[in-house]
Write a structure and sequence with these properties.
By secondary structure, this protein is α/β, with parallel strands linked by helices. It has eleven helices and 14 strands. Helix 7 packs parallel to helix 10 and helix 10 crosses helix 11.
Length: 351
């Protein structure tokens, strides 16, 4: 099982500088490599404080220069918002720059305001992604691009930088046909567990399994990539602040699906939603708190959901940078070894 650090790069306060957020991200990635993580992911979002990173491939390029071992990738490139000719060339270039350390996350996107601002019809996002995928796959494996489709018409052209193969592929979102395509290609499928316990994420995993079954694929074809929010601290005040940050993140994530997200300038408002968890529930059930608690929650996820990949986000608290780095270090020293021990035991897909 692979264990990676996820970086959303949010602004938590109006007076927080984007340069500080991005610099902190680089420090976390450096530390993650020292601690023994397998990889690091970088989000793509536009036009809100949810993230100051509109280009995860730029973050990959920058962090590749300050790391030696980590696999690096976008989680995800929202392909309908990008021309595939640029994506395929940049990914090929990154493969050359990093010695093949790239992992490629792609997704359909889901935020109406992003599509509206870019002038891309959100109703067409699945078809656009499917064609873009064709172009990227052909370009990276053969060094040639050319396509005649509904969304793109591209004349035959050679690529100077191509690795001769696709990097490890991860898909977020999509129809059953896209899910089946990813599984047939040996790719992993992202789900975000959010604040849920493992049992609460089973319906999302089962939806993927149903899509695979409909395409004649066995359950073992599922390579599940699990997005999880964790924070390791022995300080009760920090634990409460982490729970409050987790609730804000849950609210923001849901609000970004609105036609017009609730925001003041770029800053997202924290808008309560029906059925949201209480702070007390998060304190009792979240993967936040002492190392033993976090290890127990993640062990439960592994036992129930059988992920092949864990993508762990620790930057949701709004705490100062040194305290977030300290929590990451505690995770690496006290939780990561426990998870590696679990990973050594044989596992099968839980029913």
């Amino acid at each position: 099982m692979e264990i990676a650090l996820f970086n959303l790069m949010s602004l938590h306060r109006a007076d927080e500088a984007p340069a500080a957020v991005l610099g902190m991200t680089v420090e976390k990635v450096r530390l993650a490599e020292e601690l023994g993580f397998d990889g690091a992911w970088f989000a793509e979002h536009h036009f809100t404080s949810a993230s100051v990173c509109p280009s995860p491939l730029m973050m990959v390029a920058h962090c590749a220069a300050v790391t030696k071992r980590l696999r690096l990738g976008p989680a995800v490139v929202v392909l309908p918002l990008h021309h595939p000719l640029r994506v395929v060339q940049e990914v090929g270039m990154l493969q050359a720059l990093t010695g093949g350390r790239i992992q490629l996350g792609i997704g359909t996107g889901h935020q109406p305001h992003e599509f509206r601002t870019f002038g891309v019809p959100i109703a067409e996002r699945v078809g656009i992604l499917d064609e873009s995928w064709d172009i990227i796959e052909r370009g990276l494996t053969t060094g040639q691009v050319g396509h005649e489709g509904r969304h793109y018409r591209i004349p035959e052209a050679p690529l100077a930088a191509f690795p001769g193969r696709m990097p490890p592929l991860f898909l977020a979102g999509g129809t059953p046909a896209l899910i089946q395509r990813a599984a047939r290609a040996g790719g992993a499928l992202f789900i975000s567990q959010g604040h849920r316990r493992a049992a609460g994420a089973l319906p999302m995993r089962d939806k993927l399994l149903a899509a695979l079954d409909a395409g004649g694929l066995p359950a073992m074809a599922l390579r599940l990539a699990l997005q999880r929010y964790v924070f390791v601290t022995d300080d009760p005040a920090e634990k409460r602040q982490a729970a409050e940050g987790l609730l804000r993140l849950a609210r923001t994530t849901l609000s970004l699906r609105d036609e017009v997200p609730p925001r003041d300038g770029p800053m997202m408002r924290s808008v309560p939603f029906d059925g949201e968890p209480t702070i007390e529930w998060l304190l009792a059930n979240g993967a936040i708190g002492p190392a033993e608690t976090v290890a127990e929650r993640l062990a439960e996820d592994i036992r129930v959901l059988s992920p092949a990949h864990l993508s762990l986000y620790m930057g949701f608290t709004g705490l100062p940078a040194p305290r977030v780095l300290a929590a990451l270090e505690r995770f690496g020293e006290r939780v990561l070894p426990v998870l590696r021990g679990l990973d050594a035991a044989p596992r099968r897909l839980a029913s």
